[in-house]
Amino acid sequence: MDNNNETAHILVVDDEGAIRYSVSKTLQRVGYEVDEAATGEEALDMMTKREYDVVLTDIRMPGLTGVELLKRIKDISPDAIVILMTGYASLGTAVESLRLGAHDYLIKPSSSQDIRQSVSRGVERSRNLKRRRALLDAIRSNVFELTHAPEDSTASVYHDNSEMLATSAYDSPIAEPMTSNMTLGPLTIYPGRYQISVGDQPIDLTPTEFDLLLYLAAHRGRVVSCHELVREVRGYTVDEAEAREVIRPHVSNLRRKLKQTGQDADLIVNVRGIGYRLSEQSQ
Question: CATH number of the domain at 126-282, out of 3.30.70.270, 1.10.10.10, 2.40.37.10, 3.40.190.10?
Answer without folding.
Answer: 1.10.10.10
